[in-house]
Automatic annotation (TrEMBL):
Residues 1-27 form the signal peptide. SUPFAM superfamilies: Helical backbone' metal receptor (SSF53807). PANTHER family: MOLYBDATE-BINDING PROTEIN MOLA, VITAMIN B12-BINDING PROTEIN. One of its GO terms (biological process) is cellular response to iron ion. Pfam families: Peripla_BP_2. PROSITE patterns: FE_B12_PBP, PROKAR_LIPOPROTEIN. It comes from the Bacteria. Residues 43-295 form the Fe/B12 periplasmic-binding domain. It comes from Corallococcus carmarthensis. The keyword Signal applies. This is ABC transporter substrate-binding protein. Keywords: Signal. The keyword Cytoplasm does not apply.
Length: 298
């Protein structure tokens, strides 16, 4: 007796397509690739006013979720949470913002290791012109705005690289305040960003050598330096005549200072005159305007 084997439907009708796909998938990717995950929205916390200013200038302001305590935001910008300073960050406040990136200036004694535990940290050198130019480009890379950053960096480099004429005024560029107190003088070093701005405006830095240590002078040291003129940076939006006179009064009392005796002390006033961000380009113009009120150097 012949035994008949029962068989099911031909395998080609039900399983061949799937088997073929498996084989082809292993060989050449027959199966559709899974879509790449969506890029995570940037949530940037900036612990540097200059970095924050630069990010806004690049058009990345909407990605900033927290800023340092002393940051002045562009006019019309909604308030942002304050998260302390470079030296004393508020770790709890930063953690609550769930940042994807922390950005700060390179400063000694800053708690970089502790900050790195909260989110990826990028510390940028921000002292000399070349450092700032390079760091602006790096911010463009980090924020996805490389073309804007390249354009801004090139403009800053072009504007701030102009040397002063050899016979230009020897100017002492200092930080001032509206209180009118003067016990010591904090000046801008030649290699600093403001030092570059002073030369670009057409003046030589009275402190020509690169001195080590903090950039401050005693009043006796200022008199011994004997600059042709003194420009005082006052970081406020405006000062009326009475308050300008108050800020100038201690300088006029330095009768041993030739610049004081010959009325060569000028105030440079503005809410951004001490900025080391893109506003430094406007500072050049303010310095040039102040220098324009001085007599020609002898």
């Amino acid at each position: 007796m012949t035994r008949v084997l029962e068989v099911g439907p031909p395998m080609s009708l039900f399983r061949l397509p799937s088997l073929l796909c498996v084989v082809l998938a292993l060989a050449a990717g027959c199966q559709r690739s899974a879509p790449p995950p969506e890029t995570q929205a940037r949530r940037i916390v900036s612990l540097s006013p200059s970095v924050t200013e630069t990010l806004f200038a690049l058009g990345a302001g909407a990605e900033i979720v927290g800023v340092s305590d002393y940051t002045a935001l562009p006019e019309g910008t909604p308030a942002l949470p304050k998260v302390g300073t470079t030296f004393a960050p508020n770790f709890e406040a930063i953690a609550k913002l769930k940042p994807t990136l922390l950005v700060d200036q390179q400063v000694k004694q800053a708690p970089a290791e502790a900050l790195s535990a909260l989110a990826p940290l990028k510390v940028l050198p921000w002292t000399s012109l070349q450092e700032v130019v390079d760091s602006v480009k790096e911010l463009g890379r980090l924020s996805g705005r490389e073309p804007q950053a390249t354009a801004l960096a090139e403009k800053m480099n072009r504007t701030l690289s102009r040397p002063a004429p050899k016979d230009a005024h020897r100017v002492l560029l200092v930080l001032g305040d509206v209180a009118g107190t003067l016990s010591e003088v904090w000046y801008m070093k030649r290699a600093s960003l403001h030092g570059a701005a002073l030369e670009a405006a057409g003046a030589r830095n009275a402190v020509a050598d690169e001195r080590s240590g903090p950039p401050n002078l005693s009043l006796e040291g200022v008199i011994a330096l004997d600059p042709d003129a003194v420009l005082v940076l006052i970081n406020v939006p405006a000062l009326d005549a009475a308050r300008q006179a108050q800020a100038l009064a201690p300088w006029k009392q330095l009768t041993g200072l030739r610049a004081a005796r010959e009325d060569r002390v000028r105030l440079v006033i503005g809410s951004d005159v001490q900025s080391t961000g893109p506003a430094i380009l406007d500072v050049v113009e303010r310095l040039r305007a102040a220098l324009g009120t001085l007599p020609s150097p002898r």
